[in-house]
């Protein structure tokens, strides 16, 4: 099963690495491809040059409209393996049969910026997964945050208009630090919870391999007996949840704007396959109103301490795409792509997405036949009476294209439910047609308070700094004051510190939610810490000891830690090792740790800047320096947490530090 999608894609593949004659798109072999047909060597190009016209016309139309949101994305193929049958909850075949391996394609993206923006900007990350099941495609289309800005889809165009670069000057790109976005936040208090997530470290992940994914919405699972449960979906990374710090993210954007996509690509190429476990939170229908929040509200999460996450399977991304455009850019996701046993709730944001995703694919991909693009095709057969349209690639046989028909024995005919046909859950609905919001959706601040309370002190400090940075970029005093007023409903100290930092007015009355409730699952301080697949910069200042360097490199490799050797110029060190990066091409922000080897009396400026930045970003730092006085005037505090003197400490202690990741006590 895991090879079914790969085999299907091969049918549509042209291997340009194979030896083959150059042809036109009509199959005509061409003898020349460097010069257009001219009237004499210095004469004008002739219009009869069909090869030139075909080649140029295709080039002129190569770009398609980029996504309105989630334009900058990266993706890969993989597999999903179920741990245990979920037949108690759903009749979905791929969630029942543990012997099956389901092909998947995952796309991870930023939201605000264009395709040319940077990877490490502060933003929500989209996390979309297409399961190619035997019953059809199931798309789990979510984010790396469990909640959203708005409660009703009718506000989505307004949110995106406010979030996008401002229309009068197209600034800023790939950022939410501007007036129109924060004006929207201040005028729409339902965004209070989500804005704290966006200002938290979750918005600047260390790696796409090290972030969670959430379905965001409440869905339904229906079992073979017709019993339904409400469900939320989670992706839990096996490497843990890790972030950058803000200064580091900005530096990475300047040195390598493709930092995240390169990291994902190279990890898969090396065989360090990213893995996420699929978790579900399940609530019985009869318990829908048993909580102090509305389970259909997309601005609310289900606290894991109240509704535990049940781990049910694992996704492994194990194959990069062969062509970025054909697969990553043309892949089309839609939360309405479901299979028997999975259905929708009345979440008003989800209901709107069920319309908008198909609608936007019609614009981007040129018409209603985007499902025929190879990356979007299901692995199971599909038959219906839909015909023609732009880019129709299927040649349909037969006289009839309608239902019901007698000329073709009513083929294709609907499939009975008992034979696997999809049937919507028969929810009883009784209500008046009305535009409005349920009173149960009116609690805007309690879960924002829960999230803020749950953060570790260093995470709260980062969130305050992020709010201060973003609002400090705003020009309007009205926008700043309204944002602080919003924070005043969540936490008085948060509002006070941000107001002081940006020169805004703090409301006289303290309106914060009075709660000390916490959810440990919301703090990244409680995540898994591993050294596995992390990267170390071995920074050279002078000539290293070959034997020692070789020993340390072997130890790093033993723990599956990647390394690069950084020096003034690229050159061989010995028969095996060579300098791979220079201080012009590499930067501390691109690594998880640094090992400084210095055999000189003084440490040169580029080297010093590199290790000082490593220390500034709270990363582990190992030192093997011949002159113990060389760092006395630097900003590196040698006798502090996460700094290892390899003349006294063992390299394995450094490895343990790499596993820990950050040493926040340097900050606090």
From TrEMBL:
Annotated Catalase core domain residues: 23-411
Name of the molecule in the record: Catalase
UniProt cross-references to Gene3D superfamilies, sorted A to Z: 1.20.1370.20, 3.40.50.880, Catalase core domain
GO molecular function (one): catalase activity
Chain's role: Decomposes hydrogen peroxide into water and oxygen; serves to protect cells from the toxic effects of hydrogen peroxide.
Binding site for heme: 67, 107, 156, 353, 357, 364
Reaction catalyzed: 2 H2O2 = O2 + 2 H2O
Keywords from the named record: Heme, Hydrogen peroxide, Iron, Metal-binding, Oxidoreductase, Peroxidase
């Amino acid at each position: 099963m895991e090879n079914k999608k790969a085999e299907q894609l091969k049918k549509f593949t042209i291997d340009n690495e194979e030896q083959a004659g150059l042809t036109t798109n009509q199959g005509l072999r061409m003898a020349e491809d460097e010069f257009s047909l001219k009237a004499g060597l210095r004469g004008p190009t002739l219009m009869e040059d069909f090869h030139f016209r075909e080649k140029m016309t295709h080039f002129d139309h190569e770009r398609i409209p980029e996504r309105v949101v989630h334009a900058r994305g990266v993706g890969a193929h993989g597999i999903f393996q179920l741990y245990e049958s979920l037949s108690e909850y759903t009749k979905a075949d791929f969630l029942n049969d543990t012997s099956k391996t389901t092909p998947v394609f995952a796309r991870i993206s930023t939201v605000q910026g264009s395709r040319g923006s940077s990877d490490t900007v502060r933003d929500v990350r989209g996390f979309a997964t297409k399961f190619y099941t035997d019953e059809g495609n199931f798309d789990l289309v979510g984010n790396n945050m469990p909640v959203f800005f708005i409660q009703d889809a009718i506000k989505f165009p307004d949110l995106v208009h406010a979030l996008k670069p401002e229309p009068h000057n197209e600034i800023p790109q790939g950022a939410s630090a501007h007036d129109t976005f924060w004006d929207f936040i201040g005028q729409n208090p339902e965004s209070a919870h989500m804005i704290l997530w966006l200002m938290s470290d979750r918005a600047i992940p260390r790696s796409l391999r090290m972030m969670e994914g959430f379905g965001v919405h409440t869905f339904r699972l229906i079992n073979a007996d017709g019993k339904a449960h409400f469900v939320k979906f989670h992706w839990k990374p096996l490497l843990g949840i890790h972030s950058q710090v803000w200064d580091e993210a900005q530096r990475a954007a300047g040195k390598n704007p493709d930092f995240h996509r390169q990291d994902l690509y190279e990890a898969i190429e090396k065989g360090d396959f990213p893995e996420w476990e699929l978790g579900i939170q399940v609530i019985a229908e009869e318990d829908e109103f048993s909580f102090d929040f509305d389970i259909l509200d997309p601005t609310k999460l289900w606290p894991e301490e109240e509704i535990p996450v049940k781990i049910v399977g694992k996704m492994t991304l194990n194959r990069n795409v062969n062509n970025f455009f054909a697969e990553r850019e043309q892949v089309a996701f839609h939360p309405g792509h479901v299979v028997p046993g999975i259905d929708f709730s009345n979440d008003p944001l989800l209901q709107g997405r069920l319309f908008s995703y198909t609608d936007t694919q019609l614009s981007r991909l040129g018409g209603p036949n985007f499902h025929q693009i190879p990356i979007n095709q299901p692995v199971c057969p599909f038959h219906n009476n839909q015909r023609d349209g732009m880019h129709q690639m299927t040649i349909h046989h037969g006289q009839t294209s309608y239902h019901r028909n007698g000329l073709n024995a009513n083929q294709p005919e609907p499939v009975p439910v008992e034979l696997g046909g999809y049937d919507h859950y028969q929810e009883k609905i009784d209500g008046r047609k009305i535009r409005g919001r349920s009173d149960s959706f009116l609690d805007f601040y309690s879960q924002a308070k829960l999230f803020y309370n749950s953060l570790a002190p260093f995470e709260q400090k980062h969130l305050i700094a992020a709010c201060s940075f973003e609002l400090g970029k705003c020009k309007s005093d009205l926008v700043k004051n309204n944002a602080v007023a919003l924070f005043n409903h969540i936490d008085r100290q948060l509002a006070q510190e941000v107001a002081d930092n940006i020169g805004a007015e703090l409301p006289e009355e303290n309106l914060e939610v009075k709660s000390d409730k916490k959810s440990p699952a919301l703090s990244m301080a409680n995540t898994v810490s591993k050294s596995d697949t992390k990267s170390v910069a071995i920074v050279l200042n002078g000539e290293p000891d070959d034997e020692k360097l070789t020993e340390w490199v072997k130890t790093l490799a033993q723990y599956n830690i990647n390394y690069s050797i950084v020096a003034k110029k690229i050159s061989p060190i010995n028969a095996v090792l060579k300098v791979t990066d220079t201080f012009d091409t590499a930067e501390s922000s691109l690594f998880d740790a640094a090992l400084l080897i210095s055999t000189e009396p003084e440490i040169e400026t580029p080297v010093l800047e590199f290790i000082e930045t490593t220390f500034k970003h709270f990363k582990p730092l190992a030192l093997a320096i011949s002159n113990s006085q060389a760092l006395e005037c630097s900003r590196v505090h040698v006798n502090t947490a996460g700094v290892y003197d390899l003349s006294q400490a063992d390299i394995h202690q450094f490895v343990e530090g790499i596993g820990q990741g950050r040493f926040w006590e340097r900050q606090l």
